[in-house]
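CORE FACILITY INTAKE
Project code: CF-77B
Contact: R.S. (postdoc)
Sample description: multi-component assembly, two entities in total
Requested service: structural model of the whole complex
Turnaround: standard
Below are the sequence entries exactly as provided by the requester. Do not edit them.
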Amino acid sequence: MAKIIGGLTTSHVPAIGGAMARGVQNEPYWKPFFDGYLPVHKWLDEVKPDVAVVFYNDHGLNFFLDKMPTFAVGAAPEYHNADEGWGIPTLAPAKGNLDLSWHLIQHLVDREFDIVTCQEMLIDHAVSLPLKLFWPNGCPVTIVPICINTVQFPLPSAKRCYALGKAVGEAIASWDSDKKVVVIGTGGLSHQLDGERAGFINKPFDLKFMDSLVNDPEWATKYSIHELVEKTGTQGVELLMWLATRAAVPGAVRKVHANYHIPISNTAAGLMALEAV
Amino acid sequence: MAAKPIPGTTLFDGNQARKGYALNKMCFSFNSADNRAAFKADEEAYMRSYGLDAPQAEAIRTRNVLGLLAAGGNVYYLAKFAGILGLDVQDLGAAQTGMSKEDFKAMLVRQNEQPESAAVY
């Protein structure tokens, strides 16, 4: 059976793409952020995952308000990035893993998650940037993207996203394959782009949340979506991806590395690498 | 029971999504370089082709970010409009908070100083 080696969580701020394209990773503004990934590169070189399941939220590249799925699972042979309209470079496509996609779809529907399935799916910066951050020299893994709606309310609850993550973890563990799988969650941490409260960041909450993923994984499920927006900002609610990721990794985890840096763009940028033990 | 409002925050719910559909659809179209060029060539004609209502069109004309949100705009789509204008999210933050961009960026850096004792869980 396939083996879950651990979880990776990271912010996906679009400006990161611009910084990588300009090659300014060592400038003072960016260095504390990019240096955070170096110990994770070392870990990935050791554990060498074959496949990544990526929880992310689309920002108006693949999905518009005409059809807005709460949960959507990719089942495409290849996932392309494309022009997102705000001037960041388009990144390389990622290869899909169709066997795992359809195994996940079967398992999730069996478990009463009424997902949308996508045989064509553009991936935006929320997938393409993390792959580039984790594997700057080229992505060695095939992927299955899972999109969680954070655009249009009502959003799925933290508790529901945790349950989704748990079901995804069970599906991976029952996949008849010798592949090593890493689960990735992208987004957050606290930030708010819109409204008079733009620029809102909640550092104590972020740090508590990061700690909880190691020591008390279900901690954040006690909050409603409204409470999470209040505490982390309208886009900070992307922490749902981190929560689903942690839920997908069964049992205890070892913290390989974590980084937290304020600010990248308008965002408190976070990173965690958690190894299944 | 309605949850208590969050200051300075409009949740993009069903009401906003209904109100803002034409505006958001226009901004979604800006994923295409051809559409961005068409908008720049004739903003009024482009807005008419998407059926923006009067408050939406006025907020586009005046580059009024809070006005665009009030007219049902969603920030992810509005960011594509901001991209046409060469504005980033710090420009948007400054415009919405009434700060200069430099002050807004300095405010972001100062968030590092939030003490643990200020934590509210």
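Facility notes:
- The mean pLDDT of chain A is 97.
- The domain at 3-194+233-266 of chain A is CATH 3.40.830.10 (Protocatechuate 4,5-dioxygenase; Chain B).
Invoice: internal transfer
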